[in-house]
Design brief:
- One of its GO terms (molecular function) is ATP binding.
- Pfam families: Pan3_CK.
- Keywords: ATP-binding, Coiled coil, Cytoplasm, mRNA processing, Nucleotide-binding.
- With 615 residues, this protein is an alpha+beta fold.
- It has 2 domains: 215 residues, Helix Hairpins, CATH 1.10.287.3700; 280 residues, Transferase(Phosphotransferase), domain 1 (Orthogonal Bundle), CATH 1.10.510.
- The protein contains 20 helices and 15 strands.
- It has a 6-stranded antiparallel sheet.
- A hairpin with a 2-residue loop joins strand 3 and strand 4.
- The longest helix has 39 residues.
- It starts with a helix and ends with a helix.
- The structure holds adenosine-5'-triphosphate.
- The site of adenosine-5'-triphosphate has 22 residues, from strand 7, strand 10 and strand 11.
Length: 615
C-alpha cells in the first residue's frame, strides 16, 4: 500500500470526502499536502513537483471512505542520528547548509516515506522568535528585550545551567545560612506567599467595617495586642488590589501633620514605607489611620529573637531562645535569674552568631542614619522592628509623631534612639530583654563577642553628656560593613540564578500553552481543514513525538530532560531537525524546529483571530 493511501486512511474527521484530482501528484485532502500548501513560504511547488514523479500503486476512487483509526502511540523515539542519509538521487537540494531554495525531497526506507524540506532555514525565524515569548499579541509580550539585537538570544535558547560561581552551596552557618542559601531564600518566599495567598477570611471579623476609605477586607495583624490606643490591620486597596498595613489610632486625630509629611518622603530599605494618613468614622469613633507598606510574613525582633515566640523548647523553630520569664515581662528578676538566663542561652547554643548581630546592627544604623538625617526620630523598640527573610525594617514610623504632634524635642528623641539601639543590641547579644544588670550583661558580651561589639554597645548606652551620632558608629562597624555587602552580593547572585530558571520555566510554559491551544481543538475538529491539516498537522505529529513516544517494546518513553530540550529547541526555532512520524508509521517528515515554530505561530495566530472575531 502506498504512503498516500496510508495517509488517507488515517485522515480525520470527515467520513466521506469528495475526491479532488491530484495536483502534481499530491491529493489535496492529504494532510501532507495541506501542510505543504499552507503558505507561500513553504515548499509547496517543489514538493508537488517532487511528488508528481511518484508512481502510485493504485488510483484513488472518486469517493474515498476514510477510516478513522484509534490512535496507538507507536512513533518510537528515534535520535536524529538514526535518520537516513539524505538521498542523493531524489533531490538536487542539500539537507544541511544554508539553503536558499524551497525544495523538498523524499526517500522510501523500508516502506516508510521520509519527506525532507530544505527551506526551513530560510523561514523568517526572527519574527517568529520574538513573538514566541508571548501567548498574546506581540505588543503585549515581553519580547522587547530579546528582539532588540540582530542575533536573538532565543536562537540558542537552551537552559544554561547553574553558573559555577553559585554552586555547589553546601550547608553554611551564620550570615551565609540566613542570607544566601537557596533553600533559605525559597522557604522565605513560600512563607510570604502563604501569607499573601492563604488569607484569613475577613468575615471572621464581623465587627470590622467593610470599607474604610479606599481600603477593604480589614484583618487585624497577627500578634497585635488589642488595646484602646492603637490597632494594626492588613487591608486591601480597593482600586489597586495592593495590600497595606494600617495603624489605627483610636478616637484620635490631629491637624499637626508636618512631621507626617516628612515621613512620607522617607524611602529606605530598612524602614517600612509610610504612605498616607486619613481620619475616619468607619470604626464608630473618630480614628486616625496611618497607611504603610505591607510586608508579608513579618515577625518582630521581639518575637523572633527575644521572647521565644511561644516555643516550648529553649530553641524554637526560628532559633529564638525561650526565656521562661517572657510570659510575664514585668516580673522582677533577681540578678542570679538574669545571669542564669544568659548562661542557659550560652549553654544551649542559642546565642546569635556575631555576623548575624552585625548584620542587624548595620541595617538598623542605616535606617537610623536616614531618619536622623531627615530631622526625625523613630522610637526604636524590639516590638516595632520587623523582619522577613534577613531584612530588618523599622515599622510604624511616624505614629509617635502623630500622637505627640510636633511637641517632642527631636534632638533628644534622636539621642533616645541611639540609647534604644544600644539596649536592643545588648538584648540581642544576650537573647533576652532582661539585661537590667549592665555589668553582668556586658561580661557575657565581652566573653562571647568581639571587643568592637562591646564598645559599640557601651558607646550607645553611655550616659555622658557628649552628643552621640549614628555616624560615629561607622568606625566600630568597620570592615564588617564589607561582610554585609558581600553577603548581599552573594544573595543577589542566588536571586539572579533563580530568576534565570524562572524565565526559562516561563518560556516553556508559554510554548506549552500554545501547543495545547492549537492541538486538536474539539470545536474545530469537525472542520477537516483545521486540526488535521496545514500547520496543525505538523504540530499534532510533533505533540505525539514529544509526549507520546514509546520504547521499542511499547512502553511510554519518558525523559523530562528530552522534553525540555525539544521545547527549548522549538521556542528557539533552531535549525536542528526532528523526524515526525505519522500515526500509522508509514510517513516521516523531517522538519526543522524553525519550521515547526513557524507552524505554531501561524496556527496560534489563527486561534487568536478566531477568538477575537466574536459570535
Ligand atoms: N508593615 C508591616 N507589614 C506587615 N506586618 C507588619 C507590619 N508592621 C508590623 N507588622 C506585624 O504586625 C504585627 C502586630 O504589630 P503591632 O506593632 O501592632 O503589635 P503589638 O505588639 O500589638 O503593638 P502595639 O501594642 O503597639 O499595638 C506584628 O506581628 C508585626 O510583625
Amino acid at each position: 500500500m502506498s504512503w498516500l493511501h496510508r495517509e488517507l486512511e488515517t485522515m480525520d474527521p470527515s467520513i466521506f470526502l469528495q475526491y479532488s484530482p491530484p495536483t502534481n501528484g499530491l491529493p489535496q485532502e492529504s494532510k501532507l499536502a495541506t501542510y505543504m500548501n499552507r503558505s507561500t513560504s513553504t515548499p509547496t511547488r517543489s514538493l508537488n513537483q517532487a511528488l508528481g514523479k511518484l508512481s502510485l500503486e493504485s488510483s484513488p476512487t472518486a469517493i474515498k471512505k476514510v477510516v478513522i483509526t484509534e490512535f496507538v502511540p507507536m512513533n518510537y523515539f528515534a535520535q536524529p542520528a538514526i535518520l537516513p542519509e539524505s538521498p542523493e538521487s531524489s533531490s538536487p537540494s542539500q539537507l544541511s547548509g544554508v539553503p536558499n531554495t524551497s525544495q523538498v525531497h523524499q526517500e522510501n526506507v523500508g516502506g516508510t516515506t521520509y519527506f525532507y524540506s530544505t527551506n526551513s532555514d530560510s523561514l523568517n525565524t526572527t519574527g517568529a522568535l520574538n513573538s514566541s515569548t508571548s501567548i498574546g499579541p506581540p505588543e503585549a509580550c515581553m519580547s522587547g528585550a530579546v528582539g532588540a539585537g540582530a542575533a536573538s538570544p532565543y536562537a540558542t535558547q537552551i537552559y544554561s545551567g547553574t553558573p559555577t560561581h553559585i554552586g555547589p552551596m553546601t550547608s553554611k552557618s551564620g550570615l551565609a545560612a540566613s542570607f544566601y542559601m537557596p533553600e533559605t531564600i525559597r522557604s522565605e518566599i513560600y512563607e510570604r506567599n502563604d501569607d499573601v495567598f492563604l488569607q484569613t477570611d475577613p468575615r471572621q471579623f464581623p465587627d470590622l467595617p467593610e470599607n474604610v476609605e479606599m481600603y477593604s477586607e480589614l484583618i487585624p495583624l497577627e500578634g497585635s495586642a488589642p488595646h484602646s490606643i492603637a490597632t494594626s490591620y492588613r487591608a486591601l486597596h480597593r482600586h489597586t488590589g495592593e495590600q497595606y498595613a494600617l495603624r489605627r489610632l483610636h478616637s484620635y486625630t490631629t491637624s499637626a501633620t508636618k512631621r507626617l509629611e516628612m515621613w512620607k518622603q522617607i524611602d529606605h530599605p530598612n524602614i517600612v514605607r509610610f504612605h498616607d494618613w486619613f481620619t475616619t468614622k468607619a470604626f464608630g469613633d473618630h480614628s486616625m489611620v496611618l497607611v504603610y507598606s505591607y510586608h508579608p510574613a513579618c515577625v518582630t525582633l521581639m518575637n523572633k529573637y527575644l521572647s521565644g515566640g511561644g516555643g516550648t523548647n529553649s530553641n524554637d523553630a526560628n532559633g529564638a531562645f525561650h526565656d521562661p520569664f517572657s510570659s510575664d515581662p514585668d516580673a522582677p528578676r533577681p540578678y542570679t535569674h538574669q545571669k542564669n538566663a544568659m548562661l542557659r542561652a550560652v549553654a544551649s547554643g542559642a546565642l546569635l552568631p556575631e555576623a548575624v548581630l552585625w548584620s542587624l546592627l548595620v541595617q538598623l544604623t542605616a535606617a537610623l542614619r536616614a531618619v536622623h538625617t531627615a530631622g526625625l526620630a523613630c522610637s526604636l523598640d524590639p516590638t516595632k522592628v520587623v523582619m522577613n527573610g534577613c531584612r530588618v525594617r523599622i515599622s510604624w514610623c511616624g505614629a509617635i509623631d502623630a500622637l505627640h504632634a510636633n511637641t517632642n524635642d527631636i534632638g533628644q528623641a534622636q539621642q533616645d534612639d541611639l540609647t534604644a539601639l544600644g539596649r536592643l543590641a545588648l538584648a540581642l547579644a544576650c537573647r533576652t530583654i532582661h539585661c537590667d544588670n549592665l555589668a553582668a550583661s556586658m561580661e557575657l558580651v565581652a566573653r562571647t563577642y568581639s571587643a568592637d561589639l562591646k564598645n559599640l554597645i557601651l558607646y550607645l548606652l553611655s550616659s555622658s553628656t557628649a552628643r552621640r551620632s549614628v555616624t560615629d558608629l561607622m568606625p566600630m562597624i568597620g570592615a564588617r560593613f564589607y561582610t554585609q555587602v558581600e553577603a548581599l552580593e552573594r544573595r543577589a547572585d542566588v536571586f539572579e540564578d533563580q530568576l534565570a530558571r524562572e524565565i526559562d520555566n516561563g518560556r516553556l510554559l508559554r510554548i506549552l500553552i500554545k501547543l495545547g491551544v492549537v492541538n486538536e481543538r474539539p470545536e474545530l475538529n469537525l472542520d477537516a481543514s483545521w486540526s488535521e491539516t496545514g500547520d496543525r498537522y505538523m504540530l499534532k505529529l510533533f505533540r505525539d513525538y514529544l509526549f507520546h513516544s514509546v520504547t521499542a517494546d511499547g512502553r511510554p518513553w519518558l525523559d523530562q530532560a528530552h522534553l525540555a530540550h525539544c521545547l527549548n529547541q522549538l521556542d528557539g526555532g533552531t535549525t536542528a531537525r526532528v523526524e515526525l512520524m505519522s500515526r500509522d508509521e508509514q510517513s516521516v517528515l523531517v522538519v526543522s524546529y524553525a519550521e515547526l515554530k513557524h507552524c505554531l505561530e501561524q496556527a496560534f495566530d489563527e486561534v487568536m483571530q478566531a477568538a477575537a472575531e466574536g459570535p
